[in-house]
Amino acid sequence: MQTFHHGAVAEIPNTSRGVYAFAVNGHVDDDTSEALAKYMNDVFDRQEKVHMLFDLSGYSGSDGDALLDGDVLKSRLRSLSHVGRYAVVGAPENAERMIRVMDKIIPVEAKAFPTDSVDKAWAFVGAQPSGQY
């Protein structure tokens, strides 16, 4: 199975072929955002529905202009029909608020979890990590 690793983002191997989980450690630059978007667009081409988990425990920020990249925009729009559940661990407070609001208005079941509830986040997406990350 191909896994993603680029810059501050690394895919977390897990027990489900339908779960795409990522650990973010450090600053996410434009190149990493674009590479992750291309990776997920490829996943969306192959799979009708997936669940996603992001562990932001080590996140230190990102380049804001990545949101304007065509591949990034495409993957975000496609995620609305291809992602069933979306879990975020250790989200900054403003992101956590946004996730709670978006959960009410988008067709994706989205939840934010504190870093001490990582097991609950994994249960939410229906998988477990396949080792240390």
Explain the overall architecture.
- The protein has helices spanning 30-46, 70-82, 93-105, 118-125, and strands at 5-6, 9-11, 19-28, 50-62, 83-89, 109-113.
- The chain is of the alpha/beta class.
- The protein has a six-stranded mixed beta sheet, with helices on both faces.
Overall pLDDT score: 93
Structural class: alpha/beta
Catalogue the unreliable spans. Answer: none
Q: How much strand?
A: 25-35%
- Give the count of helical stretches: 4
Q: Termini distance?
A: 17 Å
Rg is 14 Å
Give the spatial strand order of the biggest sheet.
Answer: 1-2-3-4-5-6
Q: What overall geometry do the principal axes of the alpha carbons give?
A: globular
Q: State the share of residues found in helices, binned by percent.
A: 25-40%
Per DSSP E runs of 2 or more residues, the count of β-strands stands at: 6
Sheet with most strands? 6 strands, mixed
Q: Give the topology string: H per helix, E per strand.
A: EEEHEHEHEH
